[in-house]
Design goal:
Layout (H helix, E strand, L loop, with lengths): L1 H8 L9 H16 L6 E5 L5 H9 L4 E6 L2 H9 L4 E3 L14 E7 L8 H11 E12 L4 H8 L31 H10 L3 E8 L9 H7 L8 E7 L3
Parallel strand pairs: 1-2, 1-4, 2-3, 4-5
Antiparallel strand pairs: 5-7, 6-7
Helix pairs in contact: 2-3
Length: 237
């Protein structure tokens, strides 16, 4: 685990959220806030440099928004933006939050980086109050362009075989992806851990070549083949 922590402390490791997936997550949050009858506690787990945390603050005025990450360097950047941040992660010994105290957990572009996503999702469910909301996004292994790349015998986008270099596919940025989901796998995973009322929306991928962006934007309306999966799920009451 020390090696992974060092990887995310590296300033060259990407920790910022991309625009379209962020818009989907914030859109879910706005819908939740619009029906709230009392102040919410919103926890952005794996907040990185605080990009989504900042947008959550703007989308939920009057509510409590906290960013959390296990890497100190991105947290310093987030803190410098005037955000409330706490150091911690879902790995052992777990989130430094009491059970049932959080109304909304944001978990955007995190699950694909985890050695043990099962333990993490159990922790997220633990800290949520009954009826609480999970807002999650992750790359789609079955994205439309990955289907074509596999037919050509190429390594799918988002997948990585090295923590140092990219091999077998376009791109040069190593993000540290360890787990990749298709829509059926993600749906089954969340349901197995007790989440319900799943709403799934696709999002486009910022790094698609410009000539292919119109296709990517069109296919985000078909979540099973969209580049990015965004999910709103509930903890049962």
């Amino acid at each position: 685990m020390a090696e992974l922590r060092d990887f995310y402390e590296n300033p060259e490791t990407p920790v910022s959220a991309a625009e379209d997936r962020t818009a989907r997550i914030v859109g879910f949050l706005r819908e939740i806030v619009a029906t709230a009858t009392e102040p919410l506690t919103i926890l952005d787990v794996g907040c990185g440099d605080g990009g989504i945390t900042r947008m959550a603050v703007d989308a939920a005025p009057g509510h409590r928004v906290i960013g959390m990450d296990w890497a100190a360097a991105p947290l310093r950047t987030a803190s410098g933006k005037g955000l409330t941040v706490v150091r911690g992660g879902a790995a052992h010994p777990g989130l430094p939050v009491a059970s049932g105290r959080v109304d909304v957990v944001i978990f955007s572009e995190v699950i694909e980086h985890l050695v043990d996503p099962d333990a993490a999702i159990v922790e997220l469910r633990r800290v949520l109050r009954p009826g609480g909301h999970l807002l999650l996004s992750t790359p789609n292994l079955a994205a439309w362009f990955n289907r074509g790349m596999l037919l050509l015998g190429m390594q799918p986008v988002f997948s990585e075989v090295s923590m140092v270099h990219v091999f077998g596919r376009p791109g040069s940025s190593v993000a540290g992806h360890l787990r990749l989901f298709t829509l059926p796998a993600l749906r089954e995973f969340l349901l197995a851990y007790g989440f319900t009322d799943l709403i799934v929306r696709g999002a486009s991928y910022h790094d698609v070549p410009k000539p292919l962006k119109p296709i990517d934007r069109l296919l985000r309306h078909w979540p099973a083949a969209a580049a990015i999966l965004t999910v709103h799920a509930r903890k049962p009451t």
